Description:
Bound molecules: iron/sulfur cluster
Strand content: 15-25%
Helix content: 25-40%
Largest sheet: 8 strands, antiparallel
CATH class of the largest domain: Alpha Beta
Amino acid sequence: MTVEQNQTTERGSERIVLRIPTDFTAEEFARLCRVKPGSSAFEEIEDALPLIRQYASPKAIIKWANVDRVADDETTIEGVTFHSKVVADKLRDTPRVFLSVVTAGDGLERCGEFEGDPFLNTYDGALLFHASMYVVNYMKEKFGFDGSSSLNPGSLPDWPIDNNFALFDMIGNVDEIGVTLNEAGYIKPWNSGSHIHFSGDGYQNCSLCRKYSCVGRRARFNRAEYIRIFGTEP
Ligand code: SF4
């Protein structure tokens, strides 16, 4: 069962803390890990699942925010101005967004049973994906909001990682879910993510990312869109 806490922030918007269930079957967790039933990796998952269910601690914080103003490459959200062509382009006609921080948590690392386990990063990656999908579904079911399009600090050079500092400040008290930033703005634990979710066009960062050979690519590079937004050849 989800534990959900609603809290009001100083800026007045609702801040919701989600503790995300981990009552997977082996088949469900294997699918998240992209492992086929019947394989040797599936047997590893079956063996590890009781501990994963016991110790995994994926969590999220989400918060509504109003988009105050978009002009050129500046976007002001609840008084905080971001400088980014892609953020301005995507939020130009968007009055309201959801901010989120989502994490797989460090429950598996902390329990000690997974020390040296070569599958640990796969398990944590699957937990983060599960938590991210859970958050998007939660927004849809609770608020009728399609938050499947999202912008993430650091995913493109146009919106660098140090924008996490402002995003975390806007959400407030993110360390409540065990998530912090290092001096450069990278998130700890590693399998975590920060987002501005907007209702829209199915945008994926990968469509504007020039790491052409990335194995994690989820959308084809869109050259025409790159030129339209950045005004230059990739
Ligand atoms: S192509 Fe790879 S590096 Fe670029 S945004 Fe997508 S997943 Fe990230």
